[in-house]
């Protein structure tokens, strides 16, 4: 083969194409015109073909096989376009195969097969090159020559002599053939180049391929240079460290690497580690001793051992289960919340009898700003335990809980283990905040990982992916917080005892502000108690007109606004105390931000005031109905869920089926379409509790009678007119109280929920308990009869005036 490859390239033989040519199928090889190619022949029919060709005109057709796995290619297995070639030399090998050297002549196309046996024979026609001389063609030729010359300098398999050969080729078609036959390209790419008859198109394709190959070669050269540089750097560091070690030994100084290992060994020896953790630490410490500091694994093992040494495996704090002290601490830290405090004391009493406060997982559920997080801190203070807080809101990666395996770069333990490390105790109070806001994606479901963490039967052997060691979490007192339980998975919710924290009433907010918020903000703004006085009337003004919330965070921000205004005056030299009045509040904070809008919104027929429960507390919901000429269709808007849309349909169906009983015009629905809208369209809404509100709004529209402005309602409606019970009564009623409403319509089956309301709320509001929608209408339209009569008289007067004008006409 060496003799064949070194043989001089003969000139292109100019001779006519025979009428028929034998076909030699080629596997993973494409022969181009003007190229010399050595081939190995092994199949019997191919050997017979070569024997016949060498004994005859020595010319044959070379066609590439589409699928190289085909053992005996037929006409359908080969490409139609190939190359005519001449066999210049043949050598027989002792194993019976042949080695031949062929020279490609012309591009040819198969016109018609003639024979399949003993080998393929067909009729071919020549495909001449299409050349259009232009400056673009000359530019492409020079560009291809330049690119290929650069590749020759980078590709180790291309001889440097090719640079001279490429520079001396003036024919663009021959240039493409030379480059395509010498580059290592995919068979499909070579075949595509062979099939391009237009030389300009062929040059563009070759230029694209050369640009890609040049980028790959340059990237490979860059990588090789970087690797070589890193190797030289590593070798240099190794030699320098060996020299430094020898110098330190001569001077009698300790090896810093060994000193670090000895320090780790002493730290681990002084810990009371579980047996499995002790074995893992000893094993990794032995590996660390055998590794040089320059090794990549050295830092990984060093960090892993440091984590084992810093975790509180058996470090605990004694519990204080004094119930009287627990009540005192809870009263000091929180105003009211008597039922919640009593439940916490009961939990501590059971823990005192069992001598183990762990085991039960508590979950505080309530609107923002009602003291869920601070309750967890109070429990830790009561027990005398360390406190750690972990926020899981927005967490979507399971590795945030369980950690990353050490095979990953930058791996670290999960948030549970990190929280215990920060708490420096194996039995802290661990508050898991916003557990209802965990998500899930392709990286896993963190809520599923929490199942093991919050299960007292499983968390004794919690295994973090990074540590890969069992850690006992059964001694940890877990407390979770959430705004709603709707988004917490059922199996996870089943592992927790839910304690509901409702929103505060006005009196409760007043007490919290006087005892906690005002002193806290005065101190936070650098003021003395004598320098600023904020009375009860001012606080009530802030609660009513500048905040509307279930908690007290907004109230605290408004108090902070007043403290900042006062701090400016004190900093400017004012010495006399500042007593904040209602007029000063309006001057400093501007006009009122919230007003009782129920009276204004329900002044027209077709509007009813409902009550809704949201994760941030209760809220007032206005439902509007409007009519226009049509055929009785219902349109619902306001980004409502399916349940709420069905409630609207049920409400309309009941009103339409009882037009006679309600004193309505039976033809009204046949002549009008109804549009029901719930404002705040950007906020999704759903649930069945707005059913009676929708029915009231539709009835008000049809009657032309406004709903009483001081009434709010909530309840589910059925097609038979029954009112079914709903949830979130306390939050909804408190929202009605904050909005300045006086009456609340509730399902009679929710009567027992009234016992959960504060005494001041029961005294301030009047509750109307109903069984049917007729009872709802009786209460909703009671306060608006006078207005209805006035509106009816006005409409009658308008009709008489219109009739008079028509008669005059």
Termini separation: 117 Å
The count of helical stretches stands at 29
Secondary structure class reads: alpha/beta
Helix percent reads 40-55%
Contiguous low-pLDDT stretches (5 residues minimum) are 1-14, 784-796, 799-809
The proportion of strand residues reads 15-25%
What is the overall silhouette?
A: extended
- Average pLDDT, to the nearest integer? 83
Over the alpha carbons, how many angstroms does the gyration radius reach?
44 Å
Q: Could you describe the largest sheet, including whether it forms a barrel?
A: 5 strands, mixed, barrel
Number of DSSP-assigned strands: 24
- Strand order, main sheet: write it out: 1-3-4-5-6
Describe this entry's structure for a reader:
The structure is a single chain. By secondary structure, this protein is of the alpha/beta class. The strands form 7 sheets. A 5-stranded mixed beta barrel has the order 1-3-4-5-6. Strand 21 and strand 22 form a beta hairpin. Helix 3 runs antiparallel to helix 4 and helix 23 crosses helix 25. The radius of gyration is 44 Å and the shape is extended. The termini are far apart.
């Amino acid at each position: 083969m060496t003799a064949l490859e070194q043989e001089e390239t003969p000139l292109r033989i100019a001779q006519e194409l025979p009428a028929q040519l034998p076909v030699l199928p080629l596997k993973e090889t494409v022969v181009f015109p003007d190229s010399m190619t050595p081939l190995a022949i092994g199949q019997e029919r191919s050997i017979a073909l070569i024997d016949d060709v060498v004994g005859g005109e020595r010319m044959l057709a070379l066609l590439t096989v589409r699928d190289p796995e085909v053992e005996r290619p037929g006409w359908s297995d080969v490409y139609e376009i190939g190359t005519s070639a001449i066999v210049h030399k043949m050598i027989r090998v002792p194993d019976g195969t042949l080695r031949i050297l062929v020279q490609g002549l012309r591009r040819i196309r198969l016109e018609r097969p003639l024979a399949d046996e003993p080998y393929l024979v067909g009729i071919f026609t020549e495909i001449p090159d299409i050349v259009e001389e232009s400056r673009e063609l000359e530019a492409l030729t020079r560009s291809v020559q330049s690119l290929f010359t650069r590749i020759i300098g980078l590709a180790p398999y291309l001889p440097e002599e090719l640079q001279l050969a490429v520079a001396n080729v003036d024919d663009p078609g021959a240039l493409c053939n030379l480059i395509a036959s010498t580059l290592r390209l995919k068979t499909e790419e070579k075949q595509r180049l062979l099939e391009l008859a237009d030389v300009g198109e062929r040059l563009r394709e070759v230029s694209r391929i050369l640009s890609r190959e040049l980028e790959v070669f340059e990237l490979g050269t860059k990588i090789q240079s970087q690797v070589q540089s890193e190797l030289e750097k590593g070798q240099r560091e190794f030699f320098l460290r060996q020299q430094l070690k020898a110098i330190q030994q001569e001077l009698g100084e300790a090896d810093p690497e060994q000193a670090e290992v000895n320090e780790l060994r002493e730290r681990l020896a002084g810990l009371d580690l579980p047996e499995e953790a002790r074995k893992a630490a000893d094993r990794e410490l032995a590996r660390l001793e055998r590794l040089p500091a320059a090794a990549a694994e050295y830092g990984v093992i060093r960090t892993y051992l440091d984590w084992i040494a810093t975790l509180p495996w058996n470090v605990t704090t004694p519990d204080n289960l004094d119930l009287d002290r627990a009540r005192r601490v809870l009263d000091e830290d929180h105003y009211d919340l008597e039922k919640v405090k009593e439940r916490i004391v009961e939990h501590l009493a059971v823990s005192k009898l069992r001598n183990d406060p762990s085991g039960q997982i508590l979950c505080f559920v309530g609107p923002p700003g009602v003291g869920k997080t601070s309750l967890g801190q109070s429990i830790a203070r009561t027990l005398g335990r360390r406190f750690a807080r972990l926020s899981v809101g927005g967490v979507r990666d399971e590795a945030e809980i369980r950690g990353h395996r050490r095979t990953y770069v930058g791996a670290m333990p999960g948030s549970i283990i990190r929280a215990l490390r920060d708490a420096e105790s194996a039995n802290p109070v661990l508050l898991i905040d916003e557990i209802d806001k965990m998500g899930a994606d392709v990286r896993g479901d963190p809520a599923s990982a929490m199942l093991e963490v919050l299960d007292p039967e499983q968390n004794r052997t919690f295994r973090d992916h990074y540590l890969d060691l069992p850690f006992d979490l059964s001694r940890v007192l877990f407390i979770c917080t959430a705004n709603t339980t709707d988004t917490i998975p059922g199996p996870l919710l089943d592992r927790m005892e839910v304690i509901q924290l409702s929103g505060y009433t006005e009196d409760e907010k007043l007490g919290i502000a006087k005892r906690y918020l005002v002193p806290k903000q005065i101190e936070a703004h650098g003021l003395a108690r004598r320098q600023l006085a904020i009375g009860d009337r001012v606080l009530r003004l802030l609660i009513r007109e500048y905040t509307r919330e279930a908690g007290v965070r907004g109230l605290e921000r408004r108090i902070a606004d007043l403290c900042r205004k006062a701090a400016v005056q004190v900093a400017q030299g004012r010495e006399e105390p500042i007593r904040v009045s209602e007029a000063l509040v309006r001057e400093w904070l501007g006009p009122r931000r919230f007003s009782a809008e129920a009276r204004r919104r329900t002044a027209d027929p077709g509007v009813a005031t409902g009550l809704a429960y949201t994760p941030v507390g209760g809220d007032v919901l206005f439902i509007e109905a409007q009519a226009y000429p049509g055929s009785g269709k219902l349109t619902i808007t306001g980004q409502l869920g399916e349940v709420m849309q069905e409630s609207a349909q049920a409400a309309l169906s009941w009103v339409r089926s009882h037009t006679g009983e309600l004193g309505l015009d039976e033809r009204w629905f046949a002549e009008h379409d109804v549009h029901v809208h719930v404002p705040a369209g950007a906020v999704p809404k759903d649930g069945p509790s707005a059913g009676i509100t929708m029915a009231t709004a539709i009835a008000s529209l049809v009657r032309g009678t406004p709903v009483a402005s001081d009434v709010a309602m909530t309840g589910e409606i059925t097609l038979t007119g029954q009112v079914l019970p709903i949830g979130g009564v306390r939050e909804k009623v408190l929202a009605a109280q904050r909005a300045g409403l006086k009456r609340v319509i509730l399902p009679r089956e929710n009567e027992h929920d009234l016992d959960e309301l504060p005494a001041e709320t029961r005294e301030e509001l009047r509750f109307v308990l109903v069984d049917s929608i007729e009872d709802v209408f009786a209460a909703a339209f009671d306060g608006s009869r006078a207005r209805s009569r006035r509106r009816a008289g006005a409409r009658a007067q308008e009709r008489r005036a219109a009739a008079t004008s028509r008669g005059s006409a």
